[in-house]
Predict the structure.
Amino acid sequence: MAVEAIARAPRSPGISGRVGARILEVLQILGEATELFFAAARSARFLPVDRDRQRVVAQLVRVGTETLWIGALLSMFVGMVMVVQAAQQVRNVSQEILGPIVGLSMTKELGPVLMGFLLAGRAGSAMAAELGSMTVYDEINALRTMDIDPVRFLVMPRFVAATIALPVLILYADFIGVSGGAAVVAFDPAITITVRAYLDRMLEWVHFSDFVVGLVKGVFFGMIASILPCTFGLRTRGGTEGIATSTTAAVVWSFILILVFDFLIVRATFAF
């Protein structure tokens, strides 16, 4: 009997089995996120209703307003560091290109990506933890019992708020980053150009289309940084440990997809 039990014991899956299971899990998560995205987009038609607008405004305060101070701190030091490092690299050429370097970097790449990461790490983790707790403790089922759509009540306000707030945060970060670079130009004795020359050269190189690229990235990154945390929150299982796992996975997935869409958008802009 013991021999038969050993013979019937299931074998652990091999490498191909584990890889296949992982691929299926990734596809399932992406499918659930896509389905939730379309459901949230359909629910956005209820925005003219006062109660829905109030929930969106409340999320705008949490996602946008409360992120301003840390976004300013992050952008300011990024702009300052870029000026210091670039000044050392071009000291034998011309420091007049410092303005274009900071302006183009902030508007097209660093501003959108840094603010997207900040939104996903700060607000996205809170979304995943909040919805995960509600899922684990059957509050989502209670909403359905009361004939309240969880997508409209919980997901849609967060989705709309993040999609609106992130482009605004990107413009804010661009301004603060350029201002931080200007402060270094004004007070660092190693930099020989004036603040006026720094700004004039930047305005020669930075065009309106550069801001548009950053804003388009902001719209996509805002969708990613809200839909993925909500997806992981709604699929949470396993109590407090499951909540922690879902929160971590939501942030990691958001970071990865932000970088993937960053590449796709940049590639699309160079194709036209």
Notes: DSSP finds ten helices and no strands in the chain. The mean pLDDT is 89. The two ends are 71 Å apart (CA to CA).
